[in-house]
Amino acid sequence: MGKLYVIGIGPGGLDHITVKAMRAIEESNIIVGYTKYISMIKPLIENKEVFSTGMRGEEERCREALRLSRNNIVALVSTGDSGIYGMAGLILEMKSDENVEIIPGITASSAAGSVVGAPLMHDNCNISLSDLMTPYEDIKKRIKLAAEGDFVISLYNPRSKGRPHYLREAIDIIKKYRSDNVPVAIVRHALRDGEESILCTLGTIDCEVVDMFSIVIIGNSKSYIKEDKFITPRGYKI
Amino acid sequence: MGKLYVIGIGPGGLDHITVKAMRAIEESNIIVGYTKYISMIKPLIENKEVFSTGMRGEEERCREALRLSRNNIVALVSTGDSGIYGMAGLILEMKSDENVEIIPGITASSAAGSVVGAPLMHDNCNISLSDLMTPYEDIKKRIKLAAEGDFVISLYNPRSKGRPHYLREAIDIIKKYRSDNVPVAIVRHALRDGEESILCTLGTIDCEVVDMFSIVIIGNSKSYIKEDKFITPRGYKI
């Protein structure tokens, strides 16, 4: 009897993986994942069988992971939290009687937040700007409502070659509800090799520097910058 | 020269702490935290000096942690992600020239989600129902807008003795925008000792069983239950 672990490895740096995820990878004899994610955990998977595919191979990876898990201990790995824009949902949708365990990890907004300070300290939301599976009109509606509700907003998949203008349009929607000096962070490769971050504002953001390896965090009306740290106050009187 | 690590230990079970957080606790000679959190990491802190306070002692804990960090390696620990309703914000607000590092952890909604399936697979938000520092009208407005935007909604601090009706009122607001059969999960002590979970719907939720150790997750309009797992589809055609 086999098993399938659906593992979020967190941001990618091996330091930010959980003990549970690490053990599940060790216990597995087959590792399945997107080529880039597999390379991030290379030191953990020496001498293990690997099944990797390129981007947009999600269905194929999941089908193969489920099939292999009938007679093997399989780890299906992705970055961030397997349950937030990760593989947990698709696996549960596709599975029949395979033995599946979901292991959460640190999602990208938490990782990016920690790099620039404490921007997510109050009510916050995660929105993906990818329109591969969500109509763009629905995405824009969510951005508008999140802006109106004064949520701290973390944008996943903020900009790709196929939709270079969405981020600019999202910022323009948010600016209808928040002032130009609200802080914005662009964090690229948060908590893994190549990490870079930029602090700017709704008024000064340069969308051109943002790519798919970035998370963009937009503060709420009370967020501010103090000595290069992005802080959203929880409300303590200090 | 001392140092202050502001550490999110994740849900509380030692398995779900990150390698980085574990190492920072090991490296520290003084541990600061709420008594209950300290007890969760007991095996990691034998022979270390501990400064703990009861609930609502946040400012005192932070002041003490900052003071001690001038000449010691200090770990200020809380559950979940230190950057989401945790101590990272208050520390950065209060700090002057102390040496502070924020270490993220798995936030409670990620932990709770993994227990019941994959409810957070699409755009989602975290809202705290605590009105200690946020006007209740603002909280209700956020719930309404999140409901209208079809966000998956995770409610933190969903119900306490001082405000027993807020959860019921939140559910009633959401029901104006979503049908009665939308799945709801109540997860108590997610991924730590005493874990329990209930799957119900917007129409059948029994708010009386919810307490401050619980997270309540409300699905979006496409969420469904399959064999006792709560799934929010990402949109793959399968």
UniProtKB/TrEMBL annotation, chains A, B:
Boundaries of every Tetrapyrrole methylase domain copy: 3-205
Domain of life: Bacteria
GO MF, one annotated term: methyltransferase activity
Pathway per the UniProt entry: Cofactor biosynthesis; adenosylcobalamin biosynthesis
Protein name per the record: Cobalt-precorrin-3B C(17)-methyltransferase
Keywords linked to the UniProt accession: Cobalamin biosynthesis, Methyltransferase, S-adenosyl-L-methionine, Transferase
SUPFAM superfamilies (alphabetical): Tetrapyrrole methylase
Entries under InterPro entries matching the protein: 4pyrrol_Mease, 4pyrrol_Methylase_sf, 4pyrrole_Mease_sub1, 4pyrrole_Mease_sub2, Cbl_synth_CobJ/CibH_dom, Precorrin_MeTrfase
EC numbers: 2.1.1.-
Keyword Nucleus: no
Gene this protein is translated from: cbiH
Naturally occurring in which organism (per UniProt): Clostridium bornimense
GO biological process terms, semicolon-separated: cobalamin biosynthetic process; methylation
Leader sequence segment: none
